[in-house]
Specification:
7 helices, 7 strands, globular, seven-stranded mixed β-sheet, alpha/beta
Length: about 180
């Protein structure tokens, strides 16, 4: 089963939140990144504008377009509406026989991920229906669950925190480091 590390950014911690971006990185390094153009902009408070929208890669340049920015054997980057992103994500996920999703504090993330397909029962069949949380792994291994993820994996310099692809890459590095510490 292939582990895929996942993060998403959304319009706030409330019931009617909508996806702004998603990032996925497989254990073999393949990545998928998407920015949604149909998120509810009325839900974006000052914090979301300064910390999430400011870290989007394409939104300012491409606006409301459905656009494939990059697509090769390793990376897919798109911007578009939910249907366009769903279609491209399904194509990317189809490269994997079976998938195990890992995230960080995934309560909202997993619900929003499943909502891409309208319902949890509609997610692609190759995705295991139970997601896994890096926070739980930290707790089980006796590591402070509130630790800075970047500090834990010793990332220095400019952080792109709250960019979904960057955060997915950090989650992957945390998982790998925890496994190295315990082996």
């Amino acid at each position: 089963m292939t582990k895929i590390f996942f993060d998403c950014e959304f319009t706030g911690l409330h019931q009617n939140t909508t996806l702004i971006s998603i990032g996925l990185v497989s254990e073999c390094g393949k990545s998928f990144y998407a920015e949604f153009v149909d998120f509810d902009k009325t839900h974006c408070d000052k914090w979301i504008r300064e910390n999430v929208l400011a870290n989007l890669l394409f939104y300012k340049q491409y606006g409301q377009a459905n656009e494939c920015i990059e697509a090769n054997d390793q990376n897919v980057k798109v911007i578009g509406d939910s249907l366009f992103i769903k279609t491209n994500l399904e194509i990317w996920l189809s490269d994997f026989d079976s998938v195990e999703i890992w995230s960080d504090c995934l309560s909202y993330d997993w619900v929003l991920f499943c909502n891409i397909w309208g319902h949890a029962f509609n997610i692609p069949k190759n995705i295991y229906y139970i997601p896994f949380d890096i926070c739980t792994l930290f707790k089980i291994k006796g590591i402070d669950t509130d630790i800075s993820r970047e500090e834990f994996v010793e990332i220095q310099g400019d952080s792109q925190k709250h960019n979904a692809l960057y955060d997915a890459q950090v989650i992957k590095k945390c998982y790998e480091k925890i496994n190295q510490l315990t082996n």
